[in-house]
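Raw record, unedited: Glucose-6-phosphate 1-dehydrogenase
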Amino acid sequence: MDIPAAPHVLPDTCDFTVFGGTGDLALRKLLPALYHRDLEGQLPGDYRILGVSMSDLDADGWRDQVRAALRTHVDPTDLYDGAIDRFLGRLHHLRLDAQNPEDWDRLHALLKDRPNPEAAVRVFYLAVAPRLFGAICQRLDEIGVVDEHARVVLEKPIGHDLASAREVNDAVGRVFEESRIFRIDHYLGKESVQNLLVTRFANTFLEPLWSSHWVDHVQITVSETVGVGGRGAYYDHAGALRDMVQNHLLQLLCLVAMEPPTYVGRETVRDEKLKVLQALKPMTPTDVDHDTVRGRYAAGLVDGEPVPSYSDDLGHSGSRTETFVALKTEVQNWRWAGVPFYLRTGKRMDRRVSEIVVVFKQPPHSMFPGAEGATPPNRLHILVQPDEGMRLHLTAKEPGPGGYRLRPVSLDLRYAAAFDVRLPDAYERLLMDVIRGNPTLFMRRDEVEAAWTWTEPILQRWASSPDRPKRYAAGTDGPTAAATLLERDGRTWQEPDQ
């Protein structure tokens, strides 16, 4: 078949508007990402970045704030005074009170204040609370700045359950067509995650092994050493299941389990991811009790330093919110039937790591009688962060005479070393995809709602259960019940250095 050429081209003109322009996400991730793309000459020749916030800063005040953020969040080797000044010259700030029509009129005037404004691609990045998504989109429509070149970016979470997700999607969908709504999950912009598709579908030796015939089980881990920090109010309402599992971990699961698309582009990848979500084994109350573990960090040591408990971080002890989740699920289709997928995520863990581990089955027959040494199963470790790459664990014979001494060895691919280039931050790739209009790495509405459909029974069972999250000391690998979840199946969690 003929594979369509990529239709996503860089526009000549772009206005990139960030609602929440003085917030942590904008200063820590979005603006440094745009600076890097400007440094590489990849942004449109005529572009502007408009910061919208409730702050009383004028344009110069916001530029000073952004300059400080760049010096904090960009590697010093990538900071050049001329490049910084050029980038800051593209920045404008507008104080906007959502209830004041005059402020929206000023935004309209600013967006129209350019030659041939109808030809400009307008990106509206909503780095604000999801409850504001619908109202902001409606206002943008009312002031006449939403046209066929406009697109909107939504940060997670999209709602806090299925009903609220549908409300958000309905409200935004009344203004923007689905093809112009970009629901962002920064994990999908990481090089190792994108390379998972290439590893699976561009290497013929691996794909035939990628099924229940040869895979014993799959583990997906996203662990953090930090606590809730300044996000306590949000996090206590969300918890680890909503904050991480419903989006990040399920998206990683989809890329591991999806069928080969006809080609990688536009809707084909998202179609296959949706099929995986729809094939997840539904969680009954009995399944939730048996196959999920929730925990909450207590005081402990992280990197040798004492850290407080979750209750101390919140300032009260009445919360039932989980900071750790481990669960077992299954993709009920022809390829994966019978293969367990184990997911875990937590805060204040012993290490910061995001990793996918595909554990293959043992050889069906032992051919080396009397062999010495352990023969652990072959494993493919896909390292998402902090060091992106892959590690394939094999069994080899130790050199020397006198019989077979078997030992595990690994083949390592570290992207930074293999390609000797700076690895762009995930937001750099995703923001460029938004500007070009490429939705491949963004979540579609039906994906979001399918993920909530699967997740919601877990939330409902937990809410009705008298059990509280199990305590685990900060700086450990989570509650002991998480280890038991695998041990009863004769398995163990695979750690990065194993």
